[in-house]
């Protein structure tokens, strides 16, 4: 029997609004960490060299933030959200300062890894705080607003990155995090209360190490395969075997752990399983698009970093608008199932259109394509967290939120790795007979392309544009899978109260039904 849909109440408590503000600042910090680098990558590569390592500036952050997401969720459940969130921000800022000090790509990649170790906690713990204070029904609107914050950061990040690279230096794209991080620390200190009660601390270190090892090996294999090493080389096969072994051991350990990092029981929950799978696939499309669109605009179209960021605005307008509309729709109706179905269909259309771009594609057409991609991404992010938090017991909200984030980040990491390998191998094959002998592509930039002789430059630009086509077609294939999986999502009306867990509401409903008909409790299942 389906629960009645009650109207959602407005958020009036000033302390609740302050907490929401603190979470918004934290999410802004985390989002900027992911997006501000994108338009600066060609310039960074031009100065530090290493085009073949370009995607690792993004992957390092995504990978490290991915593998620590589950442990942050568990630590927040055990020690309280406030202290864990503050520690994450400090680690994030240390990584940002180290990134600004980088003198070569290896140093920068290592520093971005540190930054990701902090960034992984910002998103997970901040989103879990919302589940502590706001009923699931009201979370639809709040998650929509947070989706807008992410969208704004995705607009401001590349734009700010492009402006800083053009007018100051690329180091400031990392240092700009300092004032925002300090603001986040101040707001969180004022808004969040520390955990008063004591809980038994039991951290699944073995599970954390095994999960980190498995994910790292898998992403390394997907990134290095076909690029640094052949797909069937000893190195790649070894990484794949190591990843499978580590993840198999992780499952074995989690089934026996007292406090598992990622409780296996979550995968028996339809909402968690489906939204995590869809989030994984949409994460591939999202991070792949954000990473490679600026490259197309700067290198293939020959525009500046700032202008390339401005041309990403339509994509972010679509993301922000669709995210907010889906959030308000969830709050108004208490339902969500059709949102990811419609969104992933729009995403497929946008990605297929991006895969058809040529050097002479009009800018207004590219803007429409990007708008469609953004509109397809926004609702998925809003629905996943809200629906999952509504479908699990209160004591598992932290782990479930971390799990959702984990799969979306894994998708992003693997997507950037796979797309980077596809792009690099495609570009290398196309440039093999074009570039002058010994020129290489390690420090390729818009300035380097501009210095080439006219006939060669035209061929190089065509090669860049053509090498990106398989990237967007692959992303569209992932979106098709996400569209199909969305139909498996079960509808569970969003609860309007924090007092009862979903299972408790079902039990109460059964109790009332049994009392009315004189049947034993449980007979109505």
UniProtKB/TrEMBL annotation:
<feature type="transmembrane region" description="Helical">
    <location>
        <begin position="363"/>
        <end position="385"/>
    </location>
</feature>
<protein>
    <submittedName>
        <fullName>MFS transporter</fullName>
    </submittedName>
</protein>
<feature type="transmembrane region" description="Helical">
    <location>
        <begin position="231"/>
        <end position="253"/>
    </location>
</feature>
<feature type="transmembrane region" description="Helical">
    <location>
        <begin position="467"/>
        <end position="489"/>
    </location>
</feature>
<feature type="transmembrane region" description="Helical">
    <location>
        <begin position="170"/>
        <end position="192"/>
    </location>
</feature>
<dbReference type="InterPro" id="IPR036259">
    <property type="entry name" value="MFS_trans_sf"/>
</dbReference>
<feature type="transmembrane region" description="Helical">
    <location>
        <begin position="309"/>
        <end position="331"/>
    </location>
</feature>
<keyword id="KW-1133">Transmembrane helix</keyword>
<feature type="transmembrane region" description="Helical">
    <location>
        <begin position="114"/>
        <end position="133"/>
    </location>
</feature>
<feature type="transmembrane region" description="Helical">
    <location>
        <begin position="274"/>
        <end position="297"/>
    </location>
</feature>
<feature type="transmembrane region" description="Helical">
    <location>
        <begin position="83"/>
        <end position="102"/>
    </location>
</feature>
<feature type="transmembrane region" description="Helical">
    <location>
        <begin position="204"/>
        <end position="225"/>
    </location>
</feature>
<feature type="transmembrane region" description="Helical">
    <location>
        <begin position="18"/>
        <end position="41"/>
    </location>
</feature>
<keyword id="KW-0472">Membrane</keyword>
<feature type="domain" description="Major facilitator superfamily (MFS) profile">
    <location>
        <begin position="19"/>
        <end position="494"/>
    </location>
</feature>
<keyword id="KW-1003">Cell membrane</keyword>
<feature type="transmembrane region" description="Helical">
    <location>
        <begin position="145"/>
        <end position="164"/>
    </location>
</feature>
<feature type="transmembrane region" description="Helical">
    <location>
        <begin position="53"/>
        <end position="71"/>
    </location>
</feature>
<keyword id="KW-0813">Transport</keyword>
<dbReference type="Pfam" id="PF07690">
    <property type="entry name" value="MFS_1"/>
</dbReference>
<feature type="transmembrane region" description="Helical">
    <location>
        <begin position="338"/>
        <end position="357"/>
    </location>
</feature>
<dbReference type="InterPro" id="IPR020846">
    <property type="entry name" value="MFS_dom"/>
</dbReference>
<dbReference type="InterPro" id="IPR004638">
    <property type="entry name" value="EmrB-like"/>
</dbReference>
<feature type="transmembrane region" description="Helical">
    <location>
        <begin position="406"/>
        <end position="428"/>
    </location>
</feature>
<keyword id="KW-0812">Transmembrane</keyword>
<dbReference type="InterPro" id="IPR011701">
    <property type="entry name" value="MFS"/>
</dbReference>
